[in-house]
Amino acid sequence: MSDIIAKRGVAPVAKQALFLLFRIGSERYALRATEVAEVLPRLPLKPIARAPQWVAGVFAYRGAVVPVIDLSALTFGQPAEARTSTRLVLVHYRPNATQSAQWLGLILEQATDTLRCHPEDFQPYGLDNREAPYLGPVREDAHGLVQWVRVSDLLDESVRALLFPDPPLDPAQLEAQS
């Protein structure tokens, strides 16, 4: 098949990806859908004493205790508004390729829409934001800019140690517990 494409001089079509859209205040952001395990309603959380103010707490899910962060509080210092569209989004958090994925909950406002586009449509925005390395490239559309949030870059090492003090379970072990 690739020989046929090459002979015709037609470039192969890049595969589109699905993103979950959400807002922080009036700004639009996106998570790659492959990083999302489940979208849940906002649930009651048990607070974690002396944690950073953007660590919203923990909840029990399928036999595991899952830490939750408020992405609005992390990014701009203001907690997410309690709206009917505010969700607790369970993501597969993997800080690097050598570690197993762990569940991490994110409180996200207006997490109700999706976007299908080519990942290459997101472009660097020209700022080295070392204080928020999880804020990735941006994409422009008819509604303005949307910024890609990279789940693997959400937590620095000290916060990872606070939220995930034990070695991670293998994903098969997580599924076996459910």
UniProtKB/TrEMBL annotation:
One of its GO terms (cellular component) is cytosol. It comes from the Bacteria. Residues 16-160 form the CheW-like domain. Signal peptide: none annotated. This is Chemotaxis protein CheW. InterPro entries: CheW (IPR039315), CheW-like_dom_sf (IPR036061), CheW-lke_dom (IPR002545). SMART domains: CheW. It comes from Pseudomonas hamedanensis. One of its GO terms (biological process) is signal transduction.
